[in-house]
Amino acid sequence: MAIKKQFLKSKPVCKVTFTLAAEEAKKVAVVGSFNEWNEKATPLKKLKNGTFKGTVDLESDQSYEFRYLVDGAFVNDEEADSYIWNEYAGSENAVIKL
Description:
98 residues, single chain, five-stranded antiparallel beta sheet, 55% strand
């Protein structure tokens, strides 16, 4: 798992690239507070090496909760900036700080 942050100088936006190794998975999406937790909003593309990858433009100076949705199961990113308890889900969400 990896998160790459690329801050733009021209506007207050950060290009965030999410990468998840999931060779056996058929479908992976990143869901979070930035896309209303919509599993169809940010699907990740499967690469030949078995990893899934996708980039999202997010507003800088913000924090966002997120998780990966791997074939219907939620997974946290091990490289998240922090984690926060989600009472609704009964588990932790990963947090990215920009």
